[in-house]
Structures are given as structure tokens and as C-alpha cells.
Amino acid sequence: MTHGNHDVLIIGGGVAGLVLALEIADRRRVTLLRPASDDSGASRWAQGGIAAVLSPQDDVEAHVADTLVAGDGLCDERAVRFTVEQGPAAIEWLLSLGVPFTPDTSPGAGYPYHLTREGGHGARRIIHAADATGRVVMETLKQHVADHPSITLHTELTAIGLIGDADGACRGARCLDEQGRLHELLAADTVLATGGASGLYRHTTSPQPASGEGMMMAAELGAELMNLEFQQFHPTCLFDPEGPPFLISEAVRGEGGQLLNIHGHRFMPALDPRAELAPRDIVARAIDAEMQLTGSDHVLLDIRHLGEAAIRHHFPTIHAHCAGRGLDITRVPIPVVPAAHYSCGGVATGLDGATRVPGLYAVGEVACTGLHGANRMASNSLLECLVFARSCARALARPAVPATADLRPLAAGSQPLPPGLVGEQREAMRQWMSARVAIVRHDAGLAEAAEALADQQRRLAPLVAASPPDAELASLWHALRLARLTVASAQARRESRGLHYNPDCPVHGDPAPQPSRIHLADLATP
């Protein structure tokens, strides 16, 4: 079934997608695809806050410098400066919408709202809503989206691929509804806001992480992917094998939390002068090494010394959640383990979200803007969502060009899939990625993963070709090919930098490193 013509089609309803919808809807009609699963995605679970220069004791140059250091030499300074300079206005925009950030009522406060500090930041510049910033921001944005007459919201449609025309431009998306029926939404402009690729791994910090579906949909039309090897593992996810993932915010360490091994010994001060406030790549590797040294499956994050009143005040969500899982964090340390959290790579875009494919834009974690380089600094992610969604909206504020005919057809079969196949194949992919392409990679392990994933794709390809359109199968097919491209990117980077650590090439290489760039065409047929 073909539905057209749509004006601006936004795929994904996290913070980036919602902000873009609101910012463009006064000038163009918006169709927003927001499956129910988006409420369990990364945006909602962003506890810590949003980094921006808001305090009189802070300045743009300091935030730029901290970001460049955290990115380990691979940031695009132009993108960093653009983001940091636009940050205060983006926060003011959220405040104008009524986002209830935590106030600072202390005597002599230089800014009306409480600012915390997180790893890599040299100043307190994280504005937050207690320890549930993502949820609070999302709820506010969702209410404004629901109230806007120019935004049409679809919760029943899941995008499985983009529509291209004979000239190589993007003309919308193919979607499946809840009954599995195919819908083709033709659009003048299409924006991906589909999230990152943490779902390539077994352990993540959100219950339903994206697996790079948007990245591969863009690559299928010829978009360039960049820096896929830099997958961030958050140092502190609650360790509870029997329960769902739950992030323990960076702000816990920002307020004085200390990392201990299972014997109760603090290990970060001996490894880095910033101790627990070192950038995430350093802290995650330190935890991984400590776990191997002690033969444990977790470490401990201790905040008992802050006192019960401070813990309940600063971290009510974390306190309540842990209590619900039988853990009183005012009396015992929190067991934590690193987990896949954020993709620093993605679809290469400009400062306006434009990709190399005409008519296709990308914002949020699906995009690679150059801001994060080889390692994202804490709380720069929601900042990026805000700044680049607003910038993309400005680029889209022009007369619409209706989608054209002569579209590439969709090839599909009619053979039903064997029961349980998709789940089994996804788990196999995740096991290889977690075992060989995680916090520490080795040449031999990367080679094993490359061969295993290529073999998996070879066996799955005929089933994909023979089956009718299926949302779960499409997600797996996108994820599997992105996993192969991620391994290829990791193999190509012959150095250790930021989140990519390979003991077989442990030092920085080129003093002027370049981002890695890869296309779907670079993926050899298995």
C-alpha cells in the first residue's frame, strides 16, 4: 500500500526525532514514525543530564577542550565548537517547553538549576532532572508533539528500509504495520533518528537498544558510514544477571562515588589522576582489567560515604530501582559491570544532518557528526541530539519537493521463516560481537569474528530472499551486516585510540588520525 506524498518523514521518536518534529512542524507537515519500543530506547534511559556551558564559572573554550581530550584526537573541532556554542540556546528552548530541571537553591548559586559534574568534564556543567533526565525530557517533548496539529504520529508502523529512486535519492520508507502488511510512505525529505547499534552486543544499558538498523538502511542507498569501530561501553551498568539492564549514571561518580574491586580496594587513582572521573573508555577498560585480575564478573561502586540524605536527594530513581531489586545502596556498594551503551560512529553527516544521499538526513546517535571522535564524553549525547535536530530543522525550512515516481522496487519472497530462527541468529551474532569485538579486541579474535559473521550472513541470505517482509528479520539482516562492517573497521584501524583498544597495536598511530569511512559496497560477498 502506497501512502504519499508526505512532506517530512521522521523515523524514530527519541529525543532527536521529537525535537526535530517540533522545530520543523510550524513550517512543514511532519509524519513521525514512533514505535512503542522507542519508549525503552536509549533516550529514556539517559539518567545523567545534558552538558552545556551554563555556569558563570564555565566557558565555551573549556567545554571544547574537554570534549577534544575525551575524543582522543579524532574529533572534528568544527563540529565540537558548533555543538558547544549552540548548547545554551538549546537548553533555554527546553526550559521554554517546561522541562522541570532540578533547581539549585543553595546560597550563592550562580545558575538557577543544579549542575553536576561527570567524567571528562573539568567543571560542573551537567543540567539534569534529578537522575531521570532522559525520561523527563522525553515526556515533555512527547506531550508537545501530541498537541501539535502539523505532526501526524504513527505508532503502528516499523520502518524496514528506505525507498530510493532511479537517481539515487531517498524518497521515503517502506514500513510494516502490526499485522505485517507493507506500507510505502513517499516523502519529500526523510530523516533517520533511529538510534545507535548497542544491540549488536549481549549486555547493554537499555532494555530495547537499536542494532544499527537506520545506519544500514542509509548505507543501502549509498550513504557513507564512519567510525563504526568506536562503540562505547558505559562503565557502570547494574550487575544483576536475573534482571533487566539498568544504567547507573555517570553522575554517581561525579558526586563522589568510588570504584572498588570485589575485595574492597579502590583501583582508579593508581591508573589515572582523574580517578573515577576519567573518560569512559579509560574507566571501562580499567574495570574490565580489574575483573580479569580478580576473576570476578563485576566490580563495586560505593556511595555510602555520601550519606542517605544526599543519596536519596541526588539519585532517587537509582535508589528506588535498586531497592526494588533488593539492594539498599545507602548501606552496600552497587555491583556494576560495563555494558554496550553508545555508538560514536554512524551515518556521516554535515552540521545540518545532511547525508551524501539527496533527500536523506540523520540526527542523534544514528549519525556521526564528528563531535565524539574516538570516545563520547558524558552527557554530550543529549546535547548533540538537541543541537543537530534544531540545525537540521533549519536546513529543512524550505519549500518541499514532492517525491517522484520511478522508484526502486522491493523484492520479496513468500516462504515462511523457521520458528525461532531470528532469535537464534541474533543471539549468535551478539555472542561473537561481545566475545571478540568489545572493550578489548585482538587481531586473532577480530579475524574469527569476521569469518563467523560472514558465514552467518551466507547461510541467512537465501532465507531472507525467500521470505516475505518481516520486521524482526529485517532488523537482524541490518544488524548482521553492520556487525561485519564494524569488524572490518576495527581490523583496518592499526592503532589503539579511544574506545578501540587492540593490544596487538597498542599505541597511537598517525599523529593526525583520520576517521574511518566505509560503505556497504566495501562488504565482500560472503
UniProtKB/TrEMBL annotation:
Domain Fumarate reductase/succinate dehydrogenase flavoprotein-like C-terminal: 426-509
Predominant subcellular localization, coarse grouping: cytoplasm
GO CC annotations on file: cytoplasm
UniProt keyword annotation of ATP-binding present: no
Cofactor: FAD
Signal peptide feature range: none
Subcellular location(s) per record: Cytoplasm
Domain FAD-dependent oxidoreductase 2 FAD-binding: residue ranges: 7-382
Source organism superkingdom: Bacteria
EC number: 1.4.3.16
Keywords: FAD, Flavoprotein, Oxidoreductase, Pyridine nucleotide biosynthesis
Function in brief: Catalyzes the oxidation of L-aspartate to iminoaspartate.
The family this protein is said to belong to: Belongs to the FAD-dependent oxidoreductase 2 family. NadB subfamily.
Stated name of the protein: L-aspartate oxidase
Natural source organism: Halomonas campaniensis
